[in-house]
Amino acid sequence: MKTTSRLSIAALLLALAVPAAAAPKTYTSDLAHSEVGFSIRHLVSKVHGKFDAFKSTIVYDAANPSASSIETEIETKSINTANQRRDNHLRSGDFFLTDSFPKITFKSTSVAKKGDRFEVKGNLTIRGVTKPVVLDAAILGIGPGMMGGEVAGFEATTRVNRKDYGVNWNKTLDQGGVVLGDDVDIMLNIEAGEGGPKGK
């Protein structure tokens, strides 16, 4: 009996001494401190814009990064390039056709740690067309939030060809060339709270 008791106590002490593996944590975007932006070549410069309504859910597993994931849902009508006429054109059938396709979505299929950054592969859906893309992502920091709870900062970038998604509008200039480029750079800067605060 004494031997059994000693073994039980030793096993208990060993269990207490070995820290439990950190569980994956789920973070939800804080819309007030996050941004989904893009840029595209326009004539001889670049035009920048963003979407004002979106939600990102990020599951981060520090012990096993490959088990992490990200999902983002963007409301297409919330596009904002600081020019109402242009934004209305972008909502039309020439571009996002927002009445028929109210959301852009991204859902990761794999996450791989690459040094201090992450390669996030996933499916991006625009205008009902789904194509694989790769995000170059990083964790900017994890710590206590101003209102309590834990917050985390993430950034990610990728480049897509808009024509792959049926966004084909362009205009040829009389002097040669076209109004818009085909490549679109997408940037996500996300501050997210564990279990909230909620974005849209």
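Above is the first protein from milestone M3; the second protein from the same milestone is given next.
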Amino acid sequence: MKKKIVIFLSYIILFFNSNLLSDDNNKKLKIGLLAPLTGEYAELGKSLLYSLQLALDEINDENVFIVPRDAGFKNKTKLKLAIEEIKKEGANIVIGPLSNDEFEVVKKYNDLIFISPSNISPEFIDNIISVGVSLESQLMSLNDFIKKRNRKKTIIMFPENQYAKFIESKLNKLNLDGYKIFKYNPDPQALTGEIETLTNYSQRKKNLELRKKMFQDKEDDQSIKELEKLEQLYTLGKVNFDSVIIIDFGNNLKSVLTSLVYTDVNQKDVLITTVNQWFDESIFYENTIETLYYPSINYKEFKKYNEKYFAKFSSYPNEITILTYDALGLIYYAWKKNGKINSVNDFLFKSKIKGKIGTFSFKDKKVSQDLDIYKTEDKKFIKF
């Protein structure tokens, strides 16, 4: 086991370099893990265990123990049984549950503290702290980025589906000034027509045809050159926005990007951004946008984590596992700093905490991450 400590949390190195051992260091830190260790999501459960093993190797403290139990996935019976077994083992802090849907169950165990990788509610809720990369953190990072690029007319786009109300509630809480909302039909066939309306595509196309007619019957050099320039265009005139935030992912995101290109949105004039990207390389090959910006966790640390995981376990981790890796480091830091962990209030640190995914802030019982901005360009992820 390597002695060199490369764990991500600030100041931990101070504890390891000290030759003065207090009584607190002799105590045991038992941390429960709620994971789907059997059934359809067993591979995810195994990946979570592996990620915690990596974190334990780096912490290199024989007083830290993981107590894993099979909680299934959205299975209340298994979840309750797993929590009871963890309590019997003497752990009062638990990594999990994975889903926000299970919070109502774990709230009842108010003598335990739960650190969840969920990103739905980035705050302290009773005895639960959610440390996932939240939509709020992503939008605030994009808001700062867009302001620095001096963009004044931003449209926030998202599909009219089962998540629309959730997104609207988040936007209302953030109270972002000067942004317009555009909800679109997730059906690709309907989407293109809606994007045409948004971008005033028909009128811009007519503008071009009218402009071309002005020079078609003229034979002077200037008119010929002007017509040649116009022949290279698809539309004439700018759209009524200078940046967009697309809250979508996967094939739906690619459909929106394709529609923006089809309607001849000038990518030099309009800053195109999105959320929910975890360095998915398929965006390189199915995306017609030249430069796409998005907030994300630290790419260099993400690569290091994946490579280290692969070197040890000969497989690549599920994306969510880097959150549990950070969660263990966060718990260990709180334990070493306070000597014990009694409640969620022990995680109200005054200073920011650096993690693999980014930098955590725990202010007013709200969890936020300072995320980096990346762009996809020339089939690469480039930190902006």
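Note on the second protein: The two ends are 36 Å apart (CA to CA).
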